[in-house]
Amino acid sequence: MIKIGVDAMGGDLGLNATIKASLDIIRDYKDVEIVLYGKEDLIKPLLINNERISIVDCPNVLDMGEHDPVRAIRREKNTASLCVLMNEAKEKKVDACITSGPTQCVVVAAHLLIRKLPQVERIALCPIIPNLDGKPRLLLDVGANVELKACHISLLAQFATVVAKAILGYNDPKVGLLNIGAEEGKGRPVDKETYELLKENKYINFYGNVEPNEVLMAPCQIIITDGFTGNVCMKTMEGTAKAMAKMLKEEIKASLGGKIGYLFMRKNLARFAKRMDSKEIGGAMILGIGTPVVKAHGNSDSYAFYNAIKQGINMVKNDVINHIIASLPSEDKVDGSN
């Protein structure tokens, strides 16, 4: 039986999203248990089914606007729902953690409480993004680190390769380095150094540089960069998708012809929207941690949070952490129980 820990209090919608998603998971996955971390007096009235669902009472919640996540986590490590969840994950009481809490709090809590794998210097936020061919891609780092050294990016590329094989089903995923030009030698000094390390890394299939305008079209299954660049890239894509959807709606409503055309195109438009909708993915994985952690979007509804839980289940079923450990060079092999 797989045991999934859920931060029931996190996110903009809180219990309205997490409880329904948890109930739906229990309905659809007979080999899964859910442990809800949060205020028991608020959670219990919403549970219409107690089958394979338990509650760990946590009196506090980390604020979405927390400005000092390190201090907050140290202060609330035994009381806040996110912190208690990750403490129990470290103790192997749950197999994976799912939360839509504040991003930096989630990253810091994973780092301080669960802890990164030994000899792994940097962790990364890694969402699954759409591609024009309809197949999913990985983008990392998107915010766990503002800056990364070339050696960090190279190692994270190995982790992403493991995930692309185990979760996305690719046999030999290609890794592309996000850069300002496709040619070798482009970019900042760190980009040039990273290019050379990726080219020499025998544990990955390096494609080369990928320009930002090709992120959704490049023949790569993994796009890798530092956390600042990746975060800007991800948010630009999300904002562009929302703006395009809004413009399209305005154009449809602007004329009778547009409204008539919509009647013939609505199924196609619905499929297009689904391909670009972040709710279909669920959240971003945190790579480099000793337990699967999925950070769902802060505005996740129950459908999006359901998909985040499903992502965590898949990570457990595919034994992603031990595959990541096995991907390390022989001299860096570590014990995943730490």
Question: Describe it for me?
Answer:
By secondary structure, the chain is of the alpha/beta class. It has two domains: 1-120 and 288-338, Isopropylmalate Dehydrogenase (3-Layer(aba) Sandwich), CATH 3.40.718; 124-280, Isopropylmalate Dehydrogenase (3-Layer(aba) Sandwich). 44% of the residues lie in helices and 16% in strands. The chain has eleven helices and eleven strands. The protein has an eleven-stranded mixed beta sheet with strand order 3-2-1-4-11-10-5-6-9-7-8, with helices on both faces. The longest helix is centred in the last third of the chain and has 27 residues, at 227-253.
Keywords:
338 residues; alpha/beta; Isopropylmalate Dehydrogenase; 2 domains; eleven-stranded mixed sheet; 11 helices; 44% helix
- Trace the largest sheet across and list its strands: 3-2-1-4-11-10-5-6-9-7-8
Query: Any idea of the CATH topology of the largest domain?
Result: Isopropylmalate Dehydrogenase
Terminal CA distance reads: 22 Å
Backbone shape: globular
How many separate helices?
11
The count of β-strands is 11
Count of domains = 2
